[in-house]
Amino acid sequence: MSRHSLSQTATHVSDVLSSSALHVLNALQGIQYGSVEVTIHDGRIVQIERKEKLRLDQPVAARQ
């Protein structure tokens, strides 16, 4: 696929997805550890909550 057609595909996907769905995808983007919670009322997305965890690995000697 050429670069031009990828751009057209991305534009088409944006046109098809609702604004709410795009917000959910943005919340998921780049998260390594954590969760994304979507709250729905009356069939509509009303809240998106992103909880990201930062894991700090301790050296084995420091754990003892």
Walk me through this protein's architecture.
The structure is a single chain. With 64 residues, the protein is of the alpha+beta class. The protein has a domain at 18-52. It contains three helices and two strands. It has helices at 3-16, 19-28, 60-63; strands spanning 34-41, 44-52. The protein has a two-stranded antiparallel ribbon. It is elongated and about 55 Å long. The N and C termini lie far apart (54 Å).
Q: Any low-confidence stretches, pLDDT <50, length ≥5?
A: none
The largest sheet has its strands arranged as: 1-2
Percent in helix: 40-55%
Order of helices and strands: HHEEH
Radius of gyration: 18 Å
Which structural class matches the secondary elements? alpha+beta
Largest sheet: 2 strands, antiparallel
- Cα end-to-end separation: 54 Å
Residue-averaged pLDDT, rounded?
79
Shape: elongated
Approximately how much beta-strand content do the residues carry? 25-35%
| Counted beta strands | 2
Q: Note the total helix count.
A: 3
